Structures are given as structure tokens and as C-alpha cells.
């Protein structure tokens, strides 16, 4: 090909530094008058050059990453140069289109297009289509028709997002068609479309959001078999994480059974619990850790902490004092409101002083405890006029809820309260009985103890500290030591699963509005250090350590992550520590695809660190992902589904799902029964009658009696023992029923109060502060528990409740007209 040269036009000689422009060795080269030159490799052209003709000269615009204009060229020469350039650019673009096809095949046709591969396609594929759309005529003129067609199709999606969605959909359709037979047979029943899609979608991160009985297990088995059978993934490259050992064993057995059925002679993937995974990684780095006996026997941990705290109380006066001070936590100032209002009855008081009095308010608690600790015998009576009486000295002690200006707290009328105080003082004066006065403002100013001491001294009351040994004995005999140990064990567990640093600990307690937050944080840090010290002494680690250590080995390259696919079951209950561990595996592994399978409606393990937000806010907290919903349930009928679903979706934080059921019925299958037998309350008798009814219709049907608390089940079980039925009868707590099913379920324990359902017991303030943040909807976790309970039933769920003191859940079902069958007239709905 003859070399074409374009010189500046006659006019251009005056205005441009260019000497001439030519094509040399696949580049457009511009030579300047000052003897320098600049090359534009044709491979870098992203589109055809644009030739613009003016009156006296032409200009060529080169389109690379940026556009460059070469002006004032001789018109005729510029046209020839541009023609030749077009031929060369066309050949380069043709190669680019061919490369784009290869990339598209690699990243979007032979596998599910992953988020991490979108930038590659954006750069080398989607951008080509955009260039094509800006000059289609030239592309059509110079490129092969097949490539033009390819670009036209690619270009039909208006945005990258749409193109990605389109490519993914095409991939899904193709896979559905190719593997239809496999998906029909891989499980005992043909997979549903949504189950198939969950199997096919293989983004970097995937969330399979299910409902109860929608076949989560089927999806995990089918997905791993599909990967092994069709995608040349080796079993050992797949890791399935189960919530506990039983679930892991069940998955293993089911995998083997299905593989055999599919005629695949393959070993099972790694199906492990998080703990077993931690251990496996440690072992792979030739570490054989000793697992602390505390992990397998929580009683031993309880004994150890009790011993440690006891020794500390007996030997460390400062610790002893702090321990007493922190027995009850006071949550912000408003929580001592009831003591001034006199609304809370003494019976319900949460404060029990060391002297054994249930005192009305937190400040009275401090006073009573101080008197006790300093050996001052005192009586306590709740009343308008007096609080404490010291019989040995015939002295009265009153704590007034007023500030320095004499204003009573919390809306009590100043005039009448002042009158009361005046009257009281007068009375004592008349009777000549000494009266010691303390005030709310003493406490607010941190000087209550000081005031008390000074006043007692003034009245010659002898105050001698009873000694740490006696304090310890008292704490033991009142049960307060035991109670506090349980509280601190829960805190310890929360600190471990939430992996809280010392500063996070302070912050969390402070945020929750607990008074003395620094002291609590210090006490908890001390307990935590003692615990880790104890593990050191044992030469052992616990499960939390195991996960942290395993993650560190991965981070430092001492343990390799051999998996290409990680599937996690029961994701709604994942803890922060476990999520951090998973993130490490994903980050340090090679191109890992992560699938979380969970049901936000069944998140019931917050107390062991389950952080539902990882599921409900997956995008923010875990990352961009593909979401697939499993909304067809096979376990139960439309009646159970409608009631349980509507009930759980009252909480706006839960995902909205439209559940369809395999089985349809016409009448309500959730039945409300009262717990009255022959005029008096007898839950056990009612359960027995219900079982008898079921037995009459189907003597082989499985039955589960389910309750919030184990002790409720024990009572019923004992009652039933003398008259066994042929049906298999199970006794499950609501938590324990997760993942299980029975033909008929009988749910009991719908009481009001602390041990009711929903439990009015909000949990301990301190423990609450350390657990993962909970959504604000009232009783949200208990609500999900009832959802779990009802959806264990394949045919009918019976709810046995007290009609005279209805639990709020039962009232809600009645008053909001849930389509349940109310089989007792005792549940009268209030007239609307
Ligand atoms: N495509 C299907 N066709 C028919 N039955 C199915 C299908 N998929 C799953 N099942 C059946 O539905 C039942 C529930 O499945 P599975 O136990 O996997 O559900 P799950 O989502 O784990 O339930 P849960 O969350 O309540 O524990 C099982 O008996 C299973 O065999």
C-alpha cells in the first residue's frame, strides 16, 4: 500500500505546527515542524476517525480514550488518509469485536455473569456497543455483517445494568433448557422454577431468601450436585456451612442419597459447622488445638466464673464494692420514675436489697444495701411517709425525691409534696423521733453515700463494714450471686460473638443509657481478661478463638482456602464473628462464589449473636448480590401460610413475600383452644384431649407439642405418660423446633408476664446492650418464634391459650380477624 501523506493546507501552513501526517507501522504519525513526531497506535482507536471538511482545509478527529483533533490538513490528502485509516481501524475494531465475543462467552455465556466481571465487560464489550451506536453507518460499511449484528443486539440494551440483566436472563433460560431433565430428577421431586434459578445463579454473592418449608435444603443439595455434575467443580471445592452438627449430618446423608440416585459416584463436599471449619483450617496448618472443656460443658464455665467472682469478692474490697453497686443496672434517669409515682407495687419491684427487702426504687436500694453492708439493722416499709426505720436507735430515715430547689420529680405537684414533707417533719418533731433525710439530688450529685454516712454519724449510729466474707455469704444465700453470674456469662458470650473491643464495650453500654457504664465496662473487661487467662492456663481455646485463629491463619497465608463455592445455611442467624470469618475466606480465597440461604422470618437466635440485619440489609452489610426468593412452600397449606405469613409481616423490617402453597384447603387450619378443663385451668389435660382427637382421625400422624419454655413441656409430658397413644409425639421448644416438622402441632404457653409468650421479660439491660442491635418492632423475635412454631405443622396447628388472661399474640389474632378457627366461646372478642 502506497504511503499516504497529508500535508497542512495552504492556510494551515500559517496556523499549525504540523509538518505532515502519515500512517506508519499501524500508527498514525504526526510529524511536527520542529522535527519531533507523535504516534497514535491504531489499536488504541475506539471508533472510526471523523473527517470534517471546511472551505479551505479538513480536520480529522481521532477517537481513542480521548479525542484528538488534527486540523488544517489539505482537503484531498486528508480524505485519502482518512480512507486508509478507516480500513485499518476497521480491522482493529473487528479484532476487538471478536475479542468481545470471546469475553462475553467466557464471562456471561458459559457461566453466570458475576458482578466482579462486569467491569471487564464494560471496558471491552459494552463500550464497543456504545461506540457502534455513535457511528453505525461507518461500522456497517466497514465491519463484517455478523459482527455488526452482534453489536446491534448488544446495543439493544439501553444501559449496562439492562445489558447485564439481559445476559443473565439469557444464561438462565439456556441453563433451564439444557438441564431441565437434571432438575427434574436431582431431588425427590422436580425442582420448582425458583429453586432452579437459585441453583443456576452463581454471582459472587447470592442470597436465597426462603420461607419455611420452601426447600432450602433441596436447593443446597441440588446446587452442589449441579456444580459437580456440570461445571467441573470438584466436591472438595465446595463448602457447605450448617448451623449445627445435626443439620450438617442431615445434609451429608441427603447429599449422598441424592448423588447415588443421580448415578454420580462422587464424594460429598465439605459439609461442616463453623466450629468444625475452624478446626479443619487450624489442622491444615498443622495446629492441633485443645478445645476448652467450657465449650462442651457450660456448667463448668459457670462453676469457674462463680469461683473466680467469689474469690475476687472475698479478697478484693474494691471489687466487692463495685460488684454490689452493679448488681442492678439503672437504665437512664427515667427508669426510676415509678418510685416517685408510687405506681409500681412492691411485689413487682425488680430491686432486692441485700437485707432482703424488695425496695421501691433504685436509690432506696442503694440506701438499704449501704445500711446492710455497714451492719446497721433496718426495717423497710413502703409508704408515703417513711422508708426506713433503725430499731436499735429508734431513728427514721426518709429519702425524698426532690431537687435542690425542692421540686419533686416527675410531675408530682410541688405544693402537696412540700406539704407532706413539712407534715412529716412536724410529726417527728412532736414525737421527738429523730428523722434522717436524704434527697434525690444527693444521688444526682454522686453524694448519697456521703450524706448518709454524715447523717448517721450525727445520730451516733455505729457503722462498721461487715467484711467481704459476709458479703459473699449474703450474695450466695439470696441467690444474687447465681443470678449475676448468669448475667455476666451472657455478657461474656455476647462480647465473644460480637468480638467487642474494650472501647466498643464502653460505647455499647453507654449508648444503651445504662448508668455507671464505665464501671460495667471495666467489670466486664476484667471478667473477659480472666476468662482468656483461664483458657491460657488450660492451654486451650474456645470456639470463638478457633474462628479468630483460623481467620488469622488464612490472612497470613498459613492456611489456604481451597473452595470455589461457599454455601451458608440458616444465614438469618449469622453472628458478626462468623460473618467476619466468612469475609476473610472470601477475600483470601481464589474467586469464591458465596451463597447465603436463609429466611428472615425465622431469625430466632439473637441471644447467641444472630444478627438479622446481615439478611435484611444484605446489600449494605454483605455486598451487591443476586437475590432469589423461594416462595412456594411444600410443608403446609394455604390456611397456615396465610396466618403465619400475615402475622410475621406485621413487622415492617421483615421482607415482604408472597407465599404460595402446594396444598390448598377451604377451612381454617389454625385452631384456637382454651386451656380450661372442667372449669379450671389445665393445659396438660387440653393437650391430651387434642392428641386424642388427632389420634381418632389418624393414629399414625406425627404430633409435636411446642412451647416457649422447656419446663412447660415437662409438665405436659408427665401428664401424658400414663396414657400413651400410638402416634409419635414430640416435645419441642420453639427454638428447638427449627428445621423440624410434624403432621400436627400443639403450641402451648400463651401466657402473660415474664415467662409468657410473648415474654414481657425484655431481657437484661446489660446483655441487651451487648447483643446485636434489634429492630424496633415490639416482640419482633418472639413474633418470629410463633411463625416458626405454626409453620412446623403440615396439616393443623392448635394454639392452646388462657382465655381470661390472653397473651397479646392471641388477642391480636382474635381482634385483627385472622382467619383462625376459634374453638371456644371463652375468647370473646370485645365489641368493635
Ligand atoms: N420442588 C419440590 N417439590 C415437592 N416437594 C418439595 C420440593 N422442594 C422441597 N420439597 C419438600 O418440602 C419439604 C420442606 O423442604 P425443606 O426441609 O428443605 O424446607 P426448608 O426450607 O429447609 O424448611 P424450614 O425452613 O421450615 O426448615 C421437604 O419435605 C421437601 O422434600
UniProtKB/TrEMBL annotation:
GO terms for molecular function: 3'-5' DNA helicase activity; ATP binding; ATP hydrolysis activity; DNA binding. PROSITE patterns: UVRD_HELICASE_ATP_BIND. Residues 189-637 form the UvrD-like helicase ATP-binding domain. The keyword Isomerase applies. GO terms for cellular component: cytosol. One of its GO terms (biological process) is recombinational repair. InterPro entries: DNA_helicase_UvrD-like_C, DNA_helicase_UvrD/REP, P-loop_NTPase, UvrD-like_ATP-bd. It comes from the Bacteria. It catalyses: ATP + H2O = ADP + phosphate + H(+); Couples ATP hydrolysis with the unwinding of duplex DNA by translocating in the 3'-5' direction. Its EC number is 5.6.2.4. Pfam families: UvrD-helicase, UvrD_C. ATP binds at residues 210-217. Keywords: ATP-binding, Helicase, Hydrolase, Isomerase, Nucleotide-binding. It is an enzyme of class 5 (isomerase). This is DNA 3'-5' helicase.
Amino acid at each position: 500500500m502506497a504511503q499516504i501523506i497529508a500535508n497542512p493546507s495552504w492556510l494551515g501552513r500559517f496556523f499549525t505546527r504540523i509538518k505532515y501526517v502519515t500512517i506508519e507501522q499501524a500508527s498514525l504519525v504526526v510529524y511536527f515542524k520542529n522535527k519531533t513526531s507523535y504516534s497514535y497506535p491504531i489499536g488504541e482507536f475506539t471508533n472510526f476517525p471523523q473527517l470534517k471538511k471546511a472551505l479551505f482545509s479538513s480536520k480529522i478527529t481521532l477517537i481513542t480514550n480521548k479525542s484528538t483533533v488534527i486540523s488544517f490538513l489539505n482537503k484531498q490528502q486528508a480524505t485519502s488518509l482518512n480512507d486508509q485509516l478507516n480500513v485499518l481501524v476497521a480491522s482493529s475494531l473487528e479484532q476487538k469485536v471478536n475479542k468481545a465475543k470471546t469475553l462475553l462467552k467466557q464471562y456471561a455465556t458459559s457461566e453466570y455473569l458475576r458482578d466482579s466481571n462486569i467491569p471487564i465487560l464494560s471496558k471491552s464489550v459494552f463500550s464497543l456497543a456504545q461506540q457502534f451506536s455513535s457511528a453505525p453507518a461507518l461500522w456497517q460499511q466497514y465491519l463484517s455483517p455478523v459482527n455488526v449484528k452482534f453489536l446491534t443486539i448488544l446495543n439493544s440494551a439501553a444501559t449496562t445494568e439492562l445489558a447485564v440483566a439481559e445476559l443473565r436472563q439469557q444464561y438462565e433460560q439456556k441453563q433451564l433448557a439444557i438441564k431441565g431433565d437434571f432438575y427434574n430428577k436431582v431431588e425427590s421431586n422436580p425442582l420448582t422454577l425458583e429453586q432452579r434459578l437459585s441453583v443456576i445463579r452463581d454471582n459472587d454473592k447470592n442470597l436465597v431468601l426462603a420461607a419455611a418449608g420452601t426447600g432450602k435444603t433441596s436447593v443446597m443439595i441440588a446446587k452442589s450436585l449441579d456444580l459437580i455434575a456440570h461445571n467441573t467443580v470438584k466436591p472438595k471445592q465446595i463448602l457447605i456451612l450448617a448451623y449445627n452438627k445435626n443439620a450438617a449430618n442431615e445434609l451429608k446423608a441427603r447429599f449422598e442419597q441424592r448423588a447415588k440416585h443421580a448415578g454420580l459416584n462422587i464424594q460429598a463436599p465439605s459439609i461442616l459447622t463453623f466450629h468444625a471449619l475452624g478446626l479443619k483450617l487450624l489442622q491444615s496448618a498443622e495446629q492441633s488445638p485443645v478445645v476448652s472443656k467450657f465449650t462442651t460443658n457450660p456448667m463448668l464455665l459457670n462453676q469457674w466464673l462463680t469461683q473466680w467472682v467469689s474469690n475476687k469478692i472475698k479478697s478484693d474490697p474494691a471489687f466487692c464494692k463495685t460488684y454490689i453497686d452493679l448488681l442492678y443496672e439503672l437504665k437512664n434517669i427515667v427508669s426510676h420514675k415509678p418510685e416517685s409515682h408510687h405506681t409500681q407495687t412492691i411485689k413487682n419491684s425488680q430491686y432486692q436489697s441485700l437485707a432482703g427487702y424488695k425496695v421501691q426504687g433504685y436509690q432506696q436500694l442503694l440506701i438499704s444495701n449501704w445500711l446492710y453492708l455497714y451492719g446497721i439493722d433496718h426495717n423497710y416499709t413502703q409508704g408515703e411517709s417513711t422508708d426506713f426505720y433503725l430499731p436499735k436507735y429508734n431513728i427514721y430515715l426518709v429519702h425524698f425525691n426532690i431537687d435542690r430547689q425542692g421540686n419533686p420529680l416527675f410531675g408530682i405537684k410541688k405544693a402537696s409534696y412540700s406539704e407532706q414533707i413539712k407534715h412529716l417533719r412536724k410529726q417527728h418533731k412532736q414525737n421527738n423521733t429523730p428523722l434522717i433525710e436524704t434527697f434525690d439530688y444527693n444521688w444526682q450529685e454522686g453524694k448519697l453515700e456521703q450524706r448518709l454516712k454524715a447523717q448517721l454519724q450525727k445520730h451516733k449510729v455505729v457503722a462498721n463494714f461487715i467484711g467481704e466474707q459476709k458479703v459473699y455469704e449474703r450474695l450466695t444465700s439470696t441467690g444474687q450471686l447465681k443470678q449475676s453470674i448468669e448475667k455476666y456469662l451472657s455478657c461474656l458470650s455476647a462480647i465473644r460473638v460480637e468480638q467487642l473491643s474494650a472501647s466498643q464495650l464502653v460505647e455499647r453500654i453507654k449508648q444503651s443509657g445504662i448508668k455507671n457504664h464505665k464501671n460495667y465496662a471495666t467489670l466486664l473487661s476484667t471478667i473477659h481478661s480472666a476468662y482468656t487467662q483461664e483458657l491460657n492456663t488450660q492451654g486451650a481455646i474456645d470456639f470463638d478463638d478457633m474462628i479468630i485463629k483460623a481467620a488469622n491463619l488464612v490472612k497470613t497465608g498459613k492456611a489456604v482456602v481451597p473452595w470455589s463455592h461457599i454455601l451458608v445455611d440458616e444465614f438469618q442467624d449469622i453472628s458478626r464473628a462468623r460473618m467476619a470469618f466468612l469475609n476473610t475466606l472470601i477475600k483470601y480465597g481464589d474467586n469464591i462464589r458465596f451463597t447465603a440461604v436463609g429466611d428472615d422470618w425465622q431469625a430466632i437466635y439473637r441471644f447467641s449473636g444472630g444478627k438479622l440485619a446481615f439478611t435484611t440489609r444484605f446489600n449494605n452489610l454483605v455486598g451487591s448480590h443476586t437475590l432469589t426468593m423461594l416462595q412456594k412452600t411444600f410443608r403446609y397449606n394455604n390456611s397456615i401460610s396465610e396466618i403465619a405469613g400475615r402475622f410475621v409481616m406485621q413487622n415492617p423490617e421483615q421482607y415482604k413475600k408472597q407465599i404460595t402453597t402446594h396444598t390448598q384447603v377451604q377451612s381454617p387450619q389454625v385452631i384456637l383452644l382454651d386451656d380450661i378443663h372442667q372449669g379450671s385451668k389445665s393445659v396438660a389435660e387440653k393437650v391430651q384431649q387434642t392428641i386424642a382427637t388427632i389420634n381418632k382421625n389418624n393414629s399414625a400422624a406425627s404430633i409435636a407439642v411446642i412451647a416457649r419454655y422447656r419446663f412447660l413441656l415437662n409438665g405436659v409430658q408427665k401428664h401424658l405418660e400414663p396414657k400413651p397413644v400410638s402416634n409419635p409425639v414430640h416435645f419441642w421448644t420453639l427454638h428447638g423446633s427449627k428445621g423440624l416438622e410434624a403432621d400436627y402441632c400443639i403450641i402451648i404457653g400463651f401466657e402473660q408476664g415474664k415467662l409468657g409468650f410473648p415474654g414481657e421479660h425484655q431481657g437484661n439491660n446489660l446483655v441487651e446492650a451487648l447483643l446485636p442491635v434489634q429492630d424496633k418492632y415490639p416482640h419482633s423475635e418472639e413474633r418470629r418464634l410463633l411463625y416458626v412454631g405454626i409453620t412446623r405443622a403440615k396439616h393443623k396447628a392448635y394454639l392452646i391459650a388462657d382465655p381470661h388472661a390472653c397473651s397479646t399474640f392471641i388477642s391480636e389474632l382474635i381482634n385483627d380477624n385472622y382467619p383462625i378457627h376459634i374453638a371456644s366461646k371463652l375468647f370473646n372478642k370485645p365489641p368493635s
